[in-house]
User: Fold this.
Amino acid sequence: MRDKTIDYVLRTTWLAVQKMYNEEASKFDSTMATGFTLLSIDPESGTPSTALGPKMGMEATSLSRILKTMEESGLIERKPNPKDGRSVLIHLTPFGREKRDYSREKVLTFNETIRGQISEEKIDHFYEVAELINGLISKKSIYNQNED
Assistant:
């Protein structure tokens, strides 16, 4: 495994996780993206639509498509934000809450299974490495952004 690049390992591992979640979600006519969105919406007070994209690390165009599909499926509803008339809150419907609980259960099962196979020390190192990589990327420390 050491002869493979770090980005290769990250990418192939994430693609395997994504495929696993999509296969599981497809059993219930859903997708991983829908489950992730359901988990990102506050089940009690809703979430401003403008906050969802940054929270999920997703582009507005992709998120808009997912939200439209979710609304058509009866998972969410859009309501005016009482604190800011210019924005919209995304709320879960009862059906959306049900699907959210299912998504949460699947994520917790994944995490429990992985934690059952890997020592706490290795998990801590994994998080440390991920935070370091994210920090280097967010600080634009890997490539000089002024290069042409």
